[in-house]
Design goal:
Layout lengths: L1 E4 L2 E4 L4 E9 L5 E7 L5 E4 L2 E4 L4 E8 L5 E11 L9 H4 L5 E9 L1
Parallel strand pairs: 2-9
Antiparallel strand pairs: 1-3, 3-7, 4-6, 4-8, 5-7, 8-9
């Protein structure tokens, strides 16, 4: 299980940035993958990564100028062994265990 803090993002339609923490409630190491419903106006960094047990990872969201719109970012996650070095591997193998949705709004 993961949480995102803050759990939503609000941006001016003219563009902007926000930083979120992906926080793990799990006793296991997790890999994550970040997807957006609007790849034309949003850039996220990192797209893939790891979170240690009970740890957190930083997610940067950049909104490019564009029309006002409601979108979402989906963070998928999966448990991985400590020796895993490729955060994309569990998703290529279809091992996704859950996801969290972050609502993002540009006004």
């Amino acid at each position: 299980m993961i949480n995102v803090d803050p759990p939503a993002g609000n941006f001016p339609a003219s563009g902007g940035n926000s930083t979120h923490n992906i926080v793990s409630e799990s006793d296991s190491r997790l890999a994550f993958k970040v997807k957006s419903s609007n790849n034309e106006h949003y850039r996220v960094r990192p797209v893939y990564g790891f979170i240690d047990a009970k740890g957190k990872a930083k997610l940067d969201v950049n909104r490019l100028p564009g029309p006002p719109k409601e979108d979402k970012i989906v963070i998928q996650y999966a448990e991985v062994p400590a020796e895993e070095t490729d955060p994309q591997a569990p998703f290529k193998a279809g091992a996704q265990q859950g996801e969290v949705i972050v609502k993002i709004t540009a006004a």
